[in-house]
Design a protein that fits this description.
single chain; mainly alpha; 10 helices; elongated
Length: 262
Amino acid sequence: MIKKTVIRIAAVAMCTWFLVASCRYNASTAENGTSLKPNSTEQPTPVNANALAQAEAARKAAIEAGVDQVAPDELADTDSQLNALSARSNNGENVNLELADVSARYNALEQYAKAIAAKNRIDELDFVQYSQTDYDAGNNVLTALASLFDDSSATGAQLLAQAATANASYARVLFAGFKVKAREECTAAFVAKRNADNVYAGVVEKTRYNEAVEFYRNGDKTYALQEPEQAFNNYSNARNIFQTLYEEISEKRRQALANGNE
């Protein structure tokens, strides 16, 4: 009996020792910033890996927005900063904070490129009249941003805030303009539909007529969802189809009448 008791005590002691050792190992790996398990062949994630990936993704988005065309010098400067930080990261230095700033700079360049594109579109569409105040506000921010880009003490967050403000100002101009245009196009589509109905387009060309009706309904839906540009496009598609049906059917009728009078 005594021998069995001694064996049980030894077994409990061994399990306790194993649990304590395991906890100490896990605590040690946590303090070292790794997630490796005992006997694992996995390698720890480099300290700057996520920050570097975010910076690269932000750069890609800026390029896709066209920043290399509208702000090539600012892009080159930011690229130089990223390259320098990548080199420091390769040497084992923790540069997460600096990389976060670079990511913000790329985000700012993306917003800046989008703001320039929006401004150009407003000018082409002659939408300034629909929200002169927002248009002027956007222009003022862009002017200030040009100086901020040259300020070596400016942070990425500051640049991003200004660029996003400019882009938002121009977006409000486009929103206001397309709301007006969508309402106008809705009226034009309704008139075109009425003309198509007068020549029984819904019977003669049922498939195309129903397609136009669907575009018109989608115009109503997207307008109600505060998507005026999409609403404008839907109403335009509806108007074009209704108008084409009216013209084609009317022409066929004229030809049929002409042939009957020969």
